[in-house]
Design brief:
Elements lengths: L5 E10 L6 H19 L3 E9 L3 H9 L4 H19 L6 E4 L3 H16 L3 E11 L4 E3 L4 E3 L8 E3 L7 E10 L5 H10 L4 E2 L1 H12 L5 E2 L1 E2 L7 E2 L2 E6 L1 H6 L1 H4 L7 H7 L2 E6 L3 H15 L6 E5 L2 E3 L2 E2 L10 H8 L1 H11 L6 E2 L2 H31 L11 H22 L3 H22 L1 H4 L6 H22 L4 H11 L38
Length: 520
């Protein structure tokens, strides 16, 4: 990470066919944490999220609910998708909707450019189509149905029957980019991550690419194909373009050149769209490919992927109403190895909240502040009489700062938090061994007491800076109690141990209040 550099990060834009669940919030938090971290490292960080509002799935959902697709999208965006950002404390820089004029107009410019350059032609296609995925499926993507769908081919992701479609559409010559894509994956091993995702994408492309049907004429909810308004643009071809239309493509060259290319955080079920189709589209347009595509795992409930249709969807507010947004953010970023599938359980959430947040970090902060108030009238001691034990804490502050930053550069969010937590644990152990409450009893030990409390306060401030992207609400409260200068979000996270503050602390309420009952 280098100060002043651009760091443009995106979430997928989410379908508005239903309300969000914790799987959507998981992606939002991951991207938000990374944006916050890079911003505190002095970079020009910019976070984009939004909603995907075109396509057959939205049309059918709206029709079933007796409203127009636009009315349905407007309702869901304002009552569910934008409120989600507040629920889990997302600080996005932009929110794009594919029904925004800025997107529709510039998506058409992109499409026209490809058409004029000869990358698009007219053809016919027949295949099995999953409306849930908005995608034609290969035989390997289908499984035998069960229950009411016995005897039918169903989508392996949605477990719903696919439809056999035959259409005369416009096609993107994606097959011509197979070798360039393979060269991209070879020359830039970090382009697709994690490694398992990269291997899957390479294997898929090596099997050969077909040209992509990029228009539909059987329904009219979508962006009109600019040279033929009897067709609308295929929803995925439309949706992928949000990443550049939001960044200024077609209307703000300075902004676009400053921000692009982006790092994309996506679920592994949409990895191929982002790691195969999207870079091919950009290559055809003569634009830089994304900086990185990271396909994270699924959240599992009862061993299955989160799903509204299977009644395993959990609303984020079900968690935040009891545990708070900080606990939501911490739990999902710490408990799950980013990039792998992870199982959610109320029991694990409750246990980690109690042991790691309330007893670990929260109790540490409360004890240190309370002792400075009690033994020093709130004045942070000033001393130079340090021992090896004090120096060891200082060394840990520096070490975990560097280790966390290195992990973030690899998008290993869980490793970054684990590194920082080494300082939490070491400070708790340090206080237990040094026993400042015992030192306070003997005036002869005053210098030692001052050194211990000074060291503990310095360590707490470093934690406030390092954990600010993870648990922003708690760290803002802690920073204020420590008398830190300015906002904690303005502190350089890559030099967290250098933080500066005032001369006094102020009383601190519990950062993570005890929760007696387990929710579930």
């Amino acid at each position: 990470m280098s100060a002043g550099a651009s760091f443009y990060i995106t979430t997928p834009i989410f379908y508005v066919n239903d309300v969000p669940h914790i799987g959507h919030a998981y992606t939002e938090v991951a991207a938000d944490l990374l944006a916050r971290w890079h911003r505190q490292a002095g970079e020009d960080a910019w976070l984009l999220t939004g909603t995907d509002e075109h396509g057959q799935k939205i049309l059918r959902t709206a029709t079933a609910n007796g409203v127009t697709p636009k009315e349905w999208a407007d309702r869901l965006v304002e009552t569910a998708w934008k409120p989600l950002l507040k629920t889990v404390d997302i600080k996005n820089d932009d929110f794009i909707r594919t029904t925004d004029e800025r997107h529709e107009v510039n998506a058409q410019k992109f499409l026209q450019h490809l058409y004029d350059a000869g990358h698009i032609y007219t053809g016919e296609y027949e295949g099995f189509y999953c409306v849930g995925c908005e995608e034609y499926k290969q035989p390997s993507d289908l499984i035998e149905g069960t229950g009411e769908f016995i005897g039918q081919q169903v989508c392996a992701i949605h477990s719903l029957p696919v439809e056999l479609l035959h259409e005369k559409n416009y096609f993107f010559r994606m097959s011509t980019f197979a070798e360039r894509l393979l060269a991209l994956y070879e020359d830039d091993p970090d382009f697709v991550q994690p490694a398992a995702a990269r291997n899957e994408v390479i294997s898929f492309v090596k099997q050969g690419l077909s040209d992509l049907s990029i228009s539909r004429s059987s329904f009219d909810w979508g962006i009109k194909v600019p040279w033929d308004d009897s067709h609308v643009v295929y929803v995925w071809f439309d949706a992928l373009l949000n990443y550049i239309t939001a960044a200024g493509y077609g209307q703000d060259d300075e902004k676009f050149s400053r921000l692009w290319p982006a790092t994309h955080i996506v679920g592994k079920d949409i990895l191929r769209f982002h790691a195969v189709i999207w870079p091919a589209m950009l290559m055809a347009a003569g634009l830089p490919v994304p900086r990185r595509v990271f396909g994270h795992g699924w959240l599992l409930v009862g061993g299955e992927k989160m799903s509204k249709s299977k009644l395993t969807g959990i609303a984020p507010s079900q968690i935040t109403d009891t545990f708070g947004s900080d606990a939501f953010r911490y739990y999902f970023m710490r408990a799950i190895s980013f990039g792998q599938d992870g199982s959610f359980s109320w029991e694990d959430l409750s246990a980690r909240y109690q042991s790691e947040l309330a007893n670990g970090f929260g109790n540490l902060a409360s004890r240190v502040i309370a002792m400075v108030v009690r033994y020093c009238d709130g004045e942070i001691p000033v001393t130079t009489a340090f021992t090896d034990a004090d120096a060891a804490i200082r060394a840990t502050e520096i070490r975990v700062t560097d280790a966390a930053g290195e992990a973030i550069s690899r998008l290993a969010i869980h490793e970054a938090i684990a590194s920082v937590w080494e300082l939490v644990d070491e400070l708790n152990g340090y206080i237990t061994i040094q026993e400042p409450w015992g030192l306070a009893k003997d005036p002869a030990d005053r210098d030692r007491l001052d050194a211990v409390l000074f060291t503990a306060v310095r360590g707490l401030g470093t934690l406030a800076v390092l954990l600010s992207p993870v648990v922003p609400e708690a760290c803002a409260k802690l920073w204020s109690a420590l008398g830190g200068e300015g906002l904690v979000t303005d502190q350089r996270i890559d030099r967290a141990w250098e933080w500066t503050g005032g001369t006094h602390v102020s009383p601190l309420e519990a950062l993570f209040p005890r929760i007696e009952a387990t929710v579930g």
